[in-house]
Amino acid sequence: MLTTKSFIKKNKIGNVLKNIREHYLRNDIFCGFDICERCSPANSYLSSTHVNNCSLFLYNHYIILDTNVILDQMDILDENVIGNVIILHTVLQEVKNRSLPMYKRLRSVIENPSRHFYVFANDHHKDCYLPQEETELINDYNDRCIRKACLWYMEHIREARFVFITDDNANRQRALSENIISVSVKDYVTHLDKAQFLEDKLAKHDFHVKVDAEGLFPPHCSTFQIHNGIKESRLYQATYHASRDNYLEGFAMVDGFEDSILLQGRSGQNRAVDGDIVAIELLNQNEWVAPSEMILEDESIADTSLEDALKKEDELKTVTHKKKGDVKPTGRVVGIIRRKWRQYCGILQQDGSDTSVYQLFVPADKKIPKIRIETRQAAALRSQKIIVAIDSWPCHSRYPNGHFVRALGKIGDQSTENEVVLLEHDVPHNQFSEEVLSCLPKLPWIITDEDVEARVDLRHIDICSVDPPGCTDIDDALHCRPIDDGNLEVGVHIADVSHFIRPGTAIDLEAAKRATTVYLVNKRIDMVPELLSSNLCSLRGGEERFAFSCIWIMDKKANILHTRFHKSIIKSKKAMTYEEAQITIDDKNRNDSIALSLRNLNMLAKILKRRRLENGALVLASPEVKIQMDSETMDPIDVEVKKLFETNSMVEEFMLLANISVAEKILASFPDCAMLRRHPEPPSTNFEPLIKAGKHLGFDIRIDTGKNLAVSLDAAVRDDNPYFNTMLRILATRCMLQAIYFPSGMYQKNEFFHYGLAVPLYTHFTSPIRRYADIIVHRLLAVSIGADATYPDLLDKRKSNHLCQNLNYRNRMAQYAGRASIAFNTHLFFRGKIQDEEGYVLYIRKNAIQILIPKYGLECTLYLAQKGEKSAFFEYNEEDQNQSCGNIVLHAFDPVTVRLSLDSNNIQHEKFTLQLVSPYIEGFSVPPLNKPSRKQKLEDTGSKSPPEAKRKKKSRKH
Amino acid sequence: MSRKELISEIGLRLDGRRAHELRRIRCKLGVFTQPDGSAYLEQGLTKVLAAVYGPHQVRGNRTKAQHDSAIVNCQFSMAVFSTTDRKKRPRGDRKSTEMSIHLRQALLAAIKVELYPWSQIDVYVEVLHADGGVYPACVNAATLALIDAGIPLKEYVCACTASLANNDVPMVDISHQEEIIGGPTLTVAALPMSGKVVLMEMSQRFHLDHLPKVLDKALQGCKDIKTILDEAVRRHVEDVGSSSGWGNTSEKART
Ligand SMILES: [Zn+2]
User: Which domain range does residue A380 map to?
Assistant: First the structure.
């Protein structure tokens, strides 16, 4: 059993503590070669037939990689070009410690049999292990271990040749002196005979160094200095967030600091890229400045010219030094603790020269700086959306250096832009794998006798579903019927997705990873394969389906007398749209069971809603638009605010009620690991803009409790501006924090509260087809009613917490992706159009006014002056937050008319340009367009009254 | 939070063992002369000394003596230098009291106490270095010390820990490093020949689905330990025997 190895103690000396760990050396580690007769064989993907064709070597060879090659050149390794690679365990561990994302990518390459990678546990091999010398640095030690392993392989498999690839010059020299064949990545890749295209993907670390350009950025502190600085509280560890609007400004969030720290200019930001973990130093208080509130874009073309940057920096300084009022803690980045670089979507700078190999890449995300890349296919790439990775940012370089990864497609195409939206928001959108698809039930799907046995048969009950038009993933259905004692039986029936998705299966893991279905304007990225989402789980009209039912007995005043849950079989009588349901309710001539059921539901929902609002639930607003697509060309043909019916609210109320009932049930059964949803109360500082805006118009917005906020929002109504209240609610929505999923064991009971809904407990139960959280909740509920068994991860608090974090992240990203898709399609719709529209002032800024156009749910900026210049017409009053021109004063919420057109100069960031139409200001405003067609249009859509945008049913805000 | 993997993709644990492998066990019987029996045992870096006095007359409170069996008295203690942070460990603290009770429970299951009415057996265990699996090492050392003292046992009583790596793979004999990083640990003391479990303890809850395979692993560990202890005992008997002159007969007996 235990073949005892000679073992060596490994010392690891901490501060004062001395840790000793055992380190076993083995004699049973396989070298990976089938031809070997000395080792005990195990699984290996190394192939005797694969050939590495590099013109530097006239023979076939096996490759051993150094750590730096994997960390820096993963894009090369991802390409299916080089194979028969031996990854030493020493290297693998180092990669894992240095960069988890790279490690994951490497793992997926290793696991792919066709790539012929093999992991060799050299550090536990009796002949490859070397003890670390006392004064030896860990890097030198690792290098020595790697070389030792190379030598061992050369000795062990004499029939094969080995090539050691490293970008560390010192290590390569030493290897060569030990007779190990060794080359740099660049030399190796450029001599590969079949893959010239790989050259673009080589990461660049120090190309065309210009020594005279010193002082572009201050140098970074060493890890050691940072470490000490933080220990002595001179420096702080912080997460860097770049500003979207001003490329010369950024903020750092320090744990335990209330305010974020302002970082300005080249020396302040010092090569930090959005998301990086940085070390910052606070400036003396007399050097603190105020955020500029300016919008600055990097417009320089050549990668070498500094003038533009210097000019803008000066401009920024003069602005910020003038306003001494709101100074914020200001600091500067002195070092980088961890880079959070990822791959970025974007385009090549459009006015660059095609003949140069150096090109500037402009990321789609404005928070990311331009990146300098080297490519020989600039002309072809210019019209494409491409992906680029950052490799380094030396202090003499104005921009970070990077390399081209791949092209996505033509700029402006629907499909390309969808791809960009998905990539930029980290939405997993690959096709479902074979393994996942193999988990699907076989068709034809039939309900067996056992199924009937295990479930309550509700097929005879008149159940119906109410959803938006065109909805194919119907996850909820309702019924309501009078029972003998004069009370009502109300049932909410939710698709029984957890019946099909069993824990731990490939389909379950995939759904957990995706976390949510993502809705783009003309594309839906399903969380589960279509067979489930649109067929077997979808509660379609007239079809027998499995459901998880929540049944209440209620009196006519909507008091719950009894709640029960069970799995059931239902047969929905009809899948209705909100509009159809509304018509059914309103049609006095209809008295069939569906109509009666809907009327009762509607009656109860109104009571429930009133009660909820009385408790202090908030009615928030965000303009949500619907884009009508031409079904053939898939081009947007109209953009409108979503229409809402009473039935929207009816369905919503019952979904809320079901979620609350389920939350109570699962928390009672699983005090430690129930998956719930909380919505924390926002800190009072979040409300400042709202209070300011309210006060200005004479309304006192109280924020001490959610209830008071709801009351004061209700009271803030102005007869002269019917849209005023909605705008206040839009502002209020922006003050809110995100609601999040969490396992109950991770928080105190009083923290479970849902602020927006004003309920002590809440969860998500009603949409398992498109949200993974609901699947977990279904499983928990099923266990607590004895309908299903538990499994380990379900009851593991830490695991659940980990899962919740992913769900929260994916949900947020899905939301952003949805918005980005709407924005793109709105732009598409407006291309080449010019219209005058009514709008309202949302915010007043120093050099601009933010305007909301309710008709399209658009928020745009009306610039009052050229960037950086003072407006010739308007006077900015910071105190009262207004802009005035003569006797015309513009405040927040004032109605205006603006001309709307699309500025496509920047093809990556098309944006709306506004011109003021009314109030008319001589020299600044433009005369109104005479377009009768517009009136016509207004009548067509029938939206004469300002549309009141409320929460749609599929909203993810709760 | 990325939880560290306890078993790497190539199937090795952090210290280079495979999932089913015990740490190296080295042990020696009869390390002291004064006690009636003694043993020293190393399980990985965990090092334990055990000493047995008795059976002798019940000391102190005589009313404790029982007419049909011997009373077994266990005392567990940890040396000041046994962990990385040096701290004074008073003898009667909660942890050592609990350990003493558990130790007694395991030993009682193996000792033929009914052979010694009105008498007492004292077992002292001192941990010199703790590196995970302290309790099992104590049980295993105490077993050896009891054998050295010549106290009749029903069979060896052995103990072993087991846990789950990467939430899926059961692994045996958990080191301190693995204890810290990993999930719940199961400690089992058993009579490996008859397969009886005499003590079972979990540091946290296991899910019911996992428990059987972890328990199996721990029991297998007990059996493997028994083989090693048995070898040590035979070697010891041989050594003692040959030095005292009846080595020849035992040699014959074995052939
Ligand atoms: Zn071999």
Answer: 343-424
Last residue of a domain, one of A424, A455, A484: A424
- Residues A156 and A228 reside in one and the same domain: no
Lowest-pLDDT range of A338-347, A691-700, A942-951: A942-951
User: Which chain A residue is nearest to residue B164, measuring alpha carbons?
Assistant: A792
**How far apart are alpha carbons B67 and A778 in whole angstroms?**
60
Q: Is B44 on the interface with A (CB under 8 A)?
A: yes
Are A264 and A169 in a shared domain?
no
Is residue A732 assigned to a domain?
A: no
Contact of A669 with chain B, judged by CB distance below 8 Å, is answered with no
Q: What is the pLDDT at residue A827?
A: 83
A509 and A651 both lie in a single domain: yes
Q: Which CATH fold would you assign to the domain B25-243?
A: Ribosomal Protein S5; domain 2 (3.30.230)
Q: What's the rounded mean pLDDT across residues A505-523?
A: 89
Contact residues, chain B, for A124 at CB < 8 Å: 12, 16
User: Residue A949: is its pLDDT beyond 50?
Assistant: no
> What is d(CA A705, CA A525) in angstroms, rounded to the nearest whole number?
39
- Mean per-residue pLDDT, A252-279: 82
Alpha carbons A690 and A730: distance in angstroms, whole number: 10
Band of pLDDT at residue A644, cut at 50, 70 and 90 = confident
What DSSP line would sit under B177-246, residue for residue? HHHHHSS-EEEEEEETTTTEEEEEEESSPPPTTTHHHHHHHHHHHHHHHHHHHHHHHHHHHHHHHHHHT-
Q: Which of B10, B218, B26, B231 is nearest to B141 (CA)?
A: B26
Domain end call among A369, A398, A424 = A424
Tell me which chain B residues have a C-beta less than 8 angstroms from the C-beta of A121: 8, 10, 12, 16
Q: Is B139 helix (H, G, I), strand (E, B) or coil?
A: helix
A560 and A642, same domain (yes or no)? yes
Query: Is residue A560 included in any domain, yes or no?
Result: yes
CATH number of residue A416's parent domain: 2.40.50.700
Contacts of A108 (CB under 8 A, 6+ apart): none
CATH code of the domain containing A892: 2.40.50.140
Q: How confident is the model at residue B100 (pLDDT cuts 50, 70, 90)?
A: very high
Q: Does the distance separating the beta carbons of B16 and A119 come in below 8 Å?
A: no
Q: Does A43 touch chain B (CB under 8 A)?
A: no
Q: A22 and B85 in contact by Cβ < 8 A?
A: no
Helix (H) or strand (E) holding A420: helix A414-424
Q: What percent of chain A clears pLDDT 90, i.e. is strictly above it? A: 17
Which chain A residues are Cβ-neighbours of B172 within 8 angstroms?
none
Q: What is the largest CA-CA distance in chain B?
A: 64
Kindly give the distance from the C-alpha atom of residue A6 to the centroid of ligand 1, in angstroms, as a whole number: 20
Interface contact B16-A793, CB threshold 8 A: no
For residue B12, the chain A residues in CB contact (below 8 A) are 26, 121, 124
Residue numbers of A between 22 and 41 with CB closer than 8 Å to B: 22-26
Number of domains chain A contains? 5
pLDDT band at A317 (very low <50, low <70, confident <90, very high): low
Q: Could you tell me if residue A78 is inside a domain?
A: yes
Q: Which residues surround ligand 1, an ion (CB under 5 A)?
A: A 31, 36, 38-39
Nearest to A17 among B22, B84, B205 (CB): B84
C-alpha A153 to ligand 1 mean position (Å): 8
Q: Are residues A371 and A508 in the same domain?
A: no
B54: left (phi over 0), alpha (psi -120 to 50) or beta: left
pLDDT for A628 equals: 64
Would you say residue A715 lies in a domain? no
Q: What are the tens digits of pLDDT across the range B196-206?
A: 999 999 888 77
Q: Report the C-alpha gap between A630 and A794 in whole angstroms.
A: 45
Minimum Cα–Cα distance from A29: chain B residue: B10
| pLDDT band at residue A4 under the 50/70/90 scheme | very low
CB pairs under 8 A between A and B: 74
* Nearest one of A459, A445, A447 to A571, comparing CA atoms: A459
Q: What is the pLDDT of residue A376?
A: 78
